[in-house]
Input
Amino acid sequence: MKLFAGLLRKAPPERPLVIVSGLPRSGTSMLMRMLDAGGLPPLTDELRSADDDNPRGYYEFEPVKQLRQGDSSWLPQAQGKAVKIISALLAYLPPTHIYRVLFIQRAIPEILASQRKMLVNRGEDPDKVKDAEMAQYFETHLAQVTAWLGEQKHIAALYVDYNQMLTDPAPHVQRINAFLGGALDEQKMIAVVDPALYRQRRAENY
Output
């Protein structure tokens, strides 16, 4: 009888998949590096190597880009790890899993300046899309993504302010650790925060 009762027990609940998200150039790579230092390894294929724009690596996983085409077969590989997914792809996450999303926010003028610098480094035209137009797009997109995240029962989101975290990382690291279950090494995460990499600062009048 005890054996039969054991067979009827429910399987343990699935652990949430940890997603690091935000706009491009918003600090997602730094947050991935912090989680890695704290004890949560990244899901990455290391195909995109470090460069002048991200001297400590991009922490990307190429199959993530297939979410838009409906391919999420790689998601089980993210169990027990953190995976970086840009904000434009979050809506393609299937509701077959539960997620903890760390969404990093950064002053849009800084994001635009960082993108401009990256385009110049790649030999591309930084003025192909005007800053004012791109800023409006980003603001609209962020409002839509924030609203969407708030409606998803299978997703919990924590918003992290990049600018504030560089100034005083400890309280933000504490919130992140609590959000993810409390098992991370906070001191090692704080040690990753390097203000020297804060090269595109917000305009004084923003």
Summary: The helical segments are 2-7, 28-38, 108-121, 131-151, 162-167, 169-179, 186-192. The two ends are 69 Å apart (CA to CA). Residues 15-195 form a domain with the Rossmann fold fold (CATH 3.40.50.300). Residues 1-8, 199-206 have pLDDT under 50 and may be disordered.
